[in-house]
Design brief:
16% helix, five-stranded mixed barrel, single chain, Phosphotransferase, globular, Hpr_kin/Pase_C, alpha+beta, 147 residues, transferase, two-stranded antiparallel sheet, Rossmann fold
Length: 147
């Protein structure tokens, strides 16, 4: 990915590590982003993300804005850019119910590890944290042959 691109996604940062939240409109990207920010993550971008050379940022007109359904668009502190480590593709629990999925594949746009997550689960924020822990090496993600 050499030329800058803009994608329909949201992005949060935990320290130096960013995670892209990807899914269709209404899938829960902004809501999960709000919960991540409430849990101590930094807002990077909501709704649109600029990607360039492994870095994510908000398009300038949207920087610091978060859409909160039922409340409106809220201006808040944001992080200018972050290195992206993983893609979390938002799906409903009914779309992907594999108890122990195969090792993560790669997102076709970014080439980053891609995970599937139901954003409506109460554990969604904790799961994003585990995903980041695994991709940066703080924890080990095992496959069935390693158990």
């Amino acid at each position: 990915m050499s030329a800058p691109i803009q994608i329909h996604a949201s992005c949060a940062a935990r320290g130096e590590d960013g995670v892209l939240l990807v899914g269709p409109s209404g899938s829960g990207k902004s809501d999960l982003l709000l919960r991540l920010v409430d849990a101590g993550y930094a807002l990077v971008a909501d709704d649109r993300v600029c990607l360039h050379a492994g870095w994510a940022s908000a398009p300038p007109p949207l920087a610091g804005l978060l859409e909160v359904r039922g409340i409106g668009i809220v201006r808040m502190a944001w992080r200018a850019r972050v290195g992206v480590r993983a893609v979390v593709r938002l799906v409903s629990m009914h779309e992907r119910t594999v108890r122990l999925p195969p090792p993560p594949g790669r997102d076709t746009v970014t080439g980053l590890p891609e995970f599937f997550l139901d954003p409506a689960r109460a554990s969604a924020v904790a799961r994003v944290g585990l995903i980041l822990d695994c991709v940066v090496g703080y924890r080990q993600l095992l496959d069935e042959g390693q158990m």
